[in-house]
Amino acid sequence: MARNLRDIFPAPEDLLQLEPEDIAPLLLEYLNQGSGEPLNRHNFFNHGGSELTAYAGNRWDEVARAVTEAWMFLLREVRLAPQPGNPDPEFVFVTRRGKSLKDATDFQAYLRGNLLPAKSLDPALATKVRPLFLRGDYDTAVFRAFKEVEVRVRAKAALPEELIGVKLMRKAFDANNGPLADTSRVSAEREATAHLFAGAIGLFKNSSSHRDVSYSAEEAADLVRFANYLISWVERLPHKTSPP
């Protein structure tokens, strides 16, 4: 049975506190209930003759503007598109992408995916970390990303399995005799590299293993990308064939 706007949208005063990308999945959920016939933006926002009018009440102007912003967001994300062959651009339809998102949970997962596209990641992070991120398990995603940094450093430096965490980074990147120390750099830069890797592991991997850590989607995406950068750094270094 189709749900009306009052069933899907929060109260108008609460809706007005939301950003367009937060209203968009609610609007899409409502539009997805249609028969598949083209939608007309003019009809949807017709003041006095639409369901939106009954929902908005005396806050019509504010609500109509907020929902219009969400409508335009859906167009930008190709969840809605102009009806082919119709010269009136107000006629649109829900795209295949739009129909693939059944509810707000699906939409939020999609938005998270935009923050961390698979093609920008090392294959291991794309397969091991990104699924955790898409589920909203941000602290585990960050932990696994920096664990992968640890794994790559150990393998590249040919260091023993029992050497972990900050100690592993200090050993691998020791400015004087570390197997991954870049001798093309001056000593101060080699020391800074050791600090960088040790600090990253100590702060973002070890902290997650010791206590609960709460990241936003944006913070987690930034940190996974940082881990991805560190991995690419390590992969550019020459392999060590045996422990030093």
Describe the structure concisely:
The protein is mainly alpha-helical and 244 residues long. It has helices at 5-8, 12-15, 20-31, 41-44, 51-56, 60-76, 96-100, 104-115, 123-128, 130-134, 138-157, 165-172, 187-210, 217-235; strands spanning 39-40, 80-82, 91-94. The mean pLDDT is 87.
What does this structure look like?
Helix 11 packs across helix 13. The chain has two domains: 5-112, Orthogonal Bundle (Arc Repressor Mutant, subunit A); 117-235, no CATH class. Strand 2 and strand 3 form a beta hairpin. The longest helix is centred in the C-terminal third of the chain and has 24 residues, at 187-210. Helices cover 60% and strands 4% of the residues. It has 244 residues and is mainly alpha-helical. The protein starts with a helix and ends in a 9-residue tail after the last helix.
